[in-house]
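Quick one:
INPUT:
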């Protein structure tokens, strides 16, 4: 492996290319809050020079903590390590901050808690699945975002007067609680205040697989095939079945009013 940290002061973030749950079934969620490309954008904005992506597989999970230091970290020319105070690595999680200190200068980062609850990926995922997007955003330090490609759907939104863009996700993102959300979507780099339905739209042609459908009020663009970034701002209401299409139209009109500044 080629050393990448050639100059003093260069900062790199080390990450894995897949969730642990993809390698060890049932241990952790296979869904992600960020894709690898998302992480690159985030760490770039924070001023890091490199995002180092390590392939996570069963062989890596069998690697001892000492071997990880020798075969991965030292070959990257690492001089200083920043890690959470409860960080564990290596086979059976045998490595910790104290082991790292035998090889590198180490800064131990204290755990972050909000209202006496540890800020963690699993907690944020739980909040999203409960529809508590505002709280999840607070813990993330940013709006929860996913991205993908605008694809052609069933045109049900257009049929009832509220055309939507169907978002085909680029990664196995955490799907928030089924419902309607205030969102901001970015197309060609431009932000648009939007209304997003997450779910199976039970009133018209109920789906077997959840969809993410984005309505941009007063927007007539045809964006099939384009990349869309979608930020979740707040939860408006749960998804529900409406008896008539007129009831559905009236509710969507109220939802659009609710997202206005």
């Amino acid at each position: 492996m080629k050393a990448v940290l050639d100059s003093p002061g260069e900062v790199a973030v080390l990450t894995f290319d897949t969730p642990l749950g993809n390698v060890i079934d049932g241990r952790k969620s296979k869904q992600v809050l960020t894709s690898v490309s998302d992480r690159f954008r985030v760490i770039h904005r924070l001023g890091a020079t490199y995002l180092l992506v390590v392939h996570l597989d069963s062989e890596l999970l069998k690697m001892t903590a000492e071997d990880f230091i020798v075969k991965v970290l030292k070959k990257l020319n690492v001089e200083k390590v920043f890690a959470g105070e409860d960080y564990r690595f290596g086979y059976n999680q045998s490595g910790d901050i104290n082991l790292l200190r035998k090889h590198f200068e180490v800064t131990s980062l204290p755990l972050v808690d909000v209202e006496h609850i540890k800020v963690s990926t699993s907690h944020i995922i739980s909040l999203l699945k409960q529809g508590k997007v505002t709280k999840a955003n607070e813990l993330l330090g940013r709006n929860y975002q996913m991205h993908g490609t605008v694809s052609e759907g069933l045109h049900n939104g257009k049929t009832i007067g509220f055309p939507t863009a169907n978002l085909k996700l680029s990664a196995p993102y955490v799907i928030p609680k089924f419902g309607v959300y205030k969102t901001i979507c970015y197309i060609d780099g431009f932000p648009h205040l939007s209304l997003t339905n997450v779910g199976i739209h039970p009133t018209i042609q109920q789906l077997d697989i959840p969809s993410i459908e984005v309505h941009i009020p007063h927007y007539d663009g045809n964006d099939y095939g384009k990349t869309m970034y979608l930020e979740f701002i707040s939860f408006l209401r749960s998804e529900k079945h409406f008896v008539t299409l007129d009831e559905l139209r009236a509710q969507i009109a109220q939802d659009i009013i609710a997202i206005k500044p």
